[in-house]
Write a structure and sequence with these properties.
By secondary structure, the chain is mostly helical. Helix 5 packs antiparallel against helix 6. The two termini are 23 Å apart. The model has no long low-confidence stretch (mean pLDDT 78).
C-alpha cells in the first residue's frame, strides 16, 4: 500500500505543477483546519464523559489515524483503533472511554450528513427549498425524540458493537445540550470546509463553478467515501468524483486533474503527514502494542 501511495504521489505531482500555488496552499490550509476542529470536537466529547487529553495529542492521533485508514484494508476501523490506543497511552484514558467518545463523534456526524443529503435532494428536485428545510427540521426533531433508537441505528450503520455499559454512557450524553450543539456545529463546519476545499481546487485550474454545484459534487464525494471498501477509498473515490464532474459538464481531462489534485491533498499528502507523525511521536510502538493484543 505504501508503494501505491508513492506511485500516486508521482502522478499527482505532475498535476500539482499545473495548478495555482495560491489556491493549492489555501486548500491544504482548509484540510488541516478541519483536522484541528476534529481534535477540538473529540476533546469536548471526552470532557463530557469526564476525561481530558491535550489537544495536540488528539490532533496527532487523528493525523496518524488518517494514515492508518489509508493503508490498512479495515475501512476506518484501523485508524479508530489507533486513536483509542493513542489516548490510552498518552493521556491515560481507558480504552472503553475513548471508544465511547469516538463512537459518539461518528454518531454526531450523522446529523450534518443528513442535512447534506437533503441539500443534494433539493438540488435535483423541483420542490421549493422550504420543503427540504421543513423535512430537515422534522428529521432533527425526530432524532431528538427517538435518540436511543437513532443511536442504535447509527451504531448498526457504522457496524460498531458496544457493550450495555458503553451504550448507557452514549445515550446519557444527550442531556449535555451545549456539548451536542457545539459538536454538531463543529462537524457541520468541517463539511463546509470540504466544500470550500473543492471550490479552491477548481479555482486552482481557473474554473469558477457555482457554490451550489460544488456543494452537490462534494456531497457525492462524501457518499463515495462512505461506501468505499478499499483502503483510503482508492479507485472508488477517484472514479466517482471524475464521473460526477463529467456528469455536470466538466471536460474529462479537467475532471481528472481536479480529482487528482483533491486526492493529492486529502489522500497522498495526508498519508505522508500521518506517517511522519506516526514515526516521530511514538505511534509505531503504540500500533505494535495494539496488534499484539
Amino acid at each position: 500500500m505504501l508503494e501505491s501511495i508513492a506511485t500516486s504521489a508521482r502522478q499527482y505531482l505532475s498535476v500539482v505543477g499545473t495548478a495555482s500555488i495560491k489556491y493549492l496552499t489555501l486548500a491544504f490550509l482548509t484540510y488541516y483546519v478541519s483536522v484541528v476542529l476534529y481534535g477540538i470536537r473529540w476533546k469536548l466529547v471526552l470532557r463530557g464523559i469526564g476525561r481530558d487529553a491535550p489537544l495536540h495529542e488528539l490532533v496527532k492521533a487523528i493525523l496518524a489515524s488518517i494514515f492508518m485508514n489509508n493503508v490498512t484494508p479495515m475501512s476506518r476501523s484501523g485508524g479508530e483503533l489507533l486513536r483509542m490506543a493513542w489516548v490510552s497511552k498518552k493521556a491515560n484514558i481507558p480504552a472503553g472511554i475513548s471508544a465511547v467518545s469516538i463512537i459518539y463523534e461518528r454518531i454526531l456526524e450523522t446529523i450534518p450528513v443528513f442535512a447534506l443529503f437533503l441539500t443534494g435532494m433539493a438540488y435535483f428536485s423541483s420542490e421549493e427549498p422550504v420543503t427540504f428545510v421543513i423535512l430537515g427540521m422534522a428529521g432533527i426533531s425526530l432524532i431528538w425524540i427517538k435518540w436511543d433508537s437513532f443511536v442504535s441505528l447509527s451504531l448498526r450503520l457504522f457496524r460498531t458493537p458496544v457493550t450495555p455499559e458503553e451504550m448507557k454512557k452514549i445515550t446519557a450524553l444527550k442531556n449535555m445540550h451545549s456539548l451536542n450543539i457545539i459538536a454538531v456545529l463543529l462537524s457541520s463546519t468541517v463539511w463546509l470546509l470540504d466544500v470550500v476545499r473543492l471550490k479552491l481546487i477548481t479555482l486552482a485550474f481557473g474554473l469558477n463553478l457555482a457554490w451550489t454545484l460544488i456543494a452537490v459534487v462534494s456531497i457525492a464525494n462524501l457518499l463515495f467515501g462512505l461506501i468505499a471498501f478499499t483502503p483510503g477509498g482508492v479507485g472508488i473515490i477517484e472514479g466517482g468524483l471524475v464521473g460526477t464532474l463529467t456528469y455536470f459538464g466538466i471536460p474529462t481531462a479537467l475532471a481528472v486533474s481536479i480529482t487528482l489534485l483533491e486526492r493529492f491533498v486529502s489522500y497522498v499528502a495526508s498519508s505522508l503527514v500521518g506517517l511522519a507523525v506516526l514515526l516521530t511521536s511514538g505511534g509505531v510502538e503504540i500500533w505494535k502494542a495494539l496488534k499484539s493484543q
